[in-house]
Specification:
Distance between the termini: 22 Å
Helix content: 40-55%
Largest sheet: 7 strands, parallel
Strand content: 5-15%
Low-confidence stretches: none
Order of helices and strands: HEHEHEHEHEHEHEHH
Number of domains: 1
Radius of gyration: 17 Å
Strand order of the largest sheet: 1-2-3-4-5-6-7
CATH topology: TIM Barrel
CATH architecture: Alpha-Beta Barrel
Number of strands: 7
Oligomer: single chain
Number of helices: 9
CATH superfamily: Metal-dependent hydrolases
Length: 259
């Protein structure tokens, strides 16, 4: 939401949304120092929750250096060293979105550093998987890192941006699968519903995207309408769009809805 206007908050409330869960994200450009990330973490944990509250929305967030900026090991270490200073803020749910972008060695090392922080502070984990050409390989690399650390409980990890060729791989580990809804890339509403029909609704959630490119903050409500058109029941739609994310995030004691 740091890349969006207040109109999006108004639209979400109008559509019936109750909370926003915002991962640490790429700023639209590569930041050069940890000072910029310190200000960004303040924005996520202090200022954005206040902006959301004006529209009756609860705001939660995750902390990390995004994989897109993980090639600079020195910067990554400095940013990760900042996380413990913010980890106890009321709206922080965990570490994310960590993962891989180009599947490089440095990105893998930074992923391992983030996993160490998550294990040390007993945090939920939100994972970014690479784009299509590298997604399967990257997903396998990420799962290997997570499974190799016995402190990480699979049910406390969500692997985001799954597609048709990675969703079963993720679900078979016991981790959650996140379907990121975009009008053009990642996963369209129609494809998401297809995957739900093939792989079931357990440990799956759908999430809208708010970023610097073409994205639709109301993608989840719109997909709910598409599910209704296909004949899915109200209970099943509610499970996927509402109950599932609540089930996952309630594993953090900080996740509370007033409604």
């Amino acid at each position: 939401m740091v890349s969006r206007t207040t109109d999006d908050y108004q639209d979400m409330v109008t559509a019936g949304c109750e909370a926003v869960c915002e991962p640490a994200f790429w700023a639209g450009y590569d930041r050069k120092s940890a000072d910029g990330f310190y200000d960004y973490f303040c924005q996520l944990t202090e200022h954005e929750p206040k902006r959301a509250a004006k529209f009756g929305l609860a705001h939660f967030c995750w902390l990390c250096i995004n994989p897109k900026e993980s090639e600079d090991m020195g910067l990554a270490k400095d940013v990760i060293d900042l996380i413990p200073k913010f980890i106890d803020k009321p709206g922080v749910l965990g570490i994310g979105e960590i993962g891989l972008n180009k599947n490089s060695r440095n990105e893998l090392k930074v992923l391992e550093m983030h996993v160490e922080v998550a294990a040390k502070y007993d945090q939920l984990i939100l994972v970014h998987t690479p784009h299509l050409e590298d997604k399967l390989k990257g997903t396998k690399l990420i799962l290997d890192v997570l499974k190799s650390d016995k402190r990480i409980k699979p049910e406390r990890v969500i692997i985001d941006h799954v597609e048709e060729h990675t969703i079963k791989l993720v679900k078979d580990t016991g981790m959650w699968a996140g379907m990121t809804l975009y009008p053009e890339s990642k996963c369209t509403p129609a494809r998401a519903i297809d995957m739900l029909e093939v792989y079931g609704t357990d440990r799956i959630w759908m999430n809208s995207a708010c970023d610097w490119g073409i994205s639709v903050p109301l993608a989840v409500p719109r997909t709910m309408l598409e599910m209704k058109k296909r004949g899915h029941t109200v209970d099943l739609i509610d499970k996927v769009a509402y109950q599932n994310p609540i089930q996952f995030m309630r594993q953090s004691p900080k996740f509370k809805l007033t409604a």
